Amino acid sequence: MNAVIARPLTPEPGLTVHGEAWLTLTDADLSIAEEHLKRTQHGDLEREEMRHRIDFLRSVLSDPDQRTVWWIDQYPERLAELHQVQEATAGVTPPRDHTHNTVEDEVARFVDQLLAEMRTPQQREVFLRALTQTLRALGSTDLEHAAARLATSPSARPGADTT
């Protein structure tokens, strides 16, 4: 009924179209609809629980150390099969967290690598000056000020880290 009423109409200009519907149903029909809704919700809950169990198993089986501990805990009488399980699950990958931002991970790895490459205070000073200028050009004043504070900190000055 709603599909018929809600169907887009293209009336002539100036013409107004209104629709109204009253639906009646029997108690039996209402019970059937409620039962269908309950079954649908129950099925959704079961599928979500199954997804959580699969994600848990994937995270355990993708890590060799966790896999070993889990197998020993779950099947202590089947320790002889542990080698077969390890071979069979060697390619299992951990579940993906759809809320996790992989770009942030890549940036963090890049920054870690960058920091590892800056071995001297002079390299750090040159980097921080360039970063400060770049942030100023981009209009990131808060980050610019933070970078400037780092550049003027005692550890950024040449020879300051020697004791």
Distance from N terminus to C terminus (CA atoms, Å) equals 84 Å
Query: Radius of gyration over alpha carbons?
Result: 32 Å
Overall shape: it is: flat
Biggest sheet character: none
Binned, the helix content reads 55-70%
Number of helices: 7
Specify the oligomeric state: single chain
Percent in strands = under 5%
| Uncertain residue segments | none
Q: Structural class, judged by helices and strands? A: mainly alpha
Order of helices and strands: HHHHHHH
- The total count of strands amounts to 0
Mean pLDDT value: 81
Summarize the model shown:
The protein has 163 residues and is mainly α. 64% of the residues lie in helices and 0% in strands.
Report what the structure shows.
This protein has 163 residues and is mainly alpha-helical. The chain has helices at 2-6, 27-61, 64-74, 82-88, 102-117, 121-138, 141-152. Helix 6 (121-138) runs antiparallel to helix 7 (141-152). It starts with a helix and ends in an 11-residue tail after the last helix. The mean pLDDT is 81.
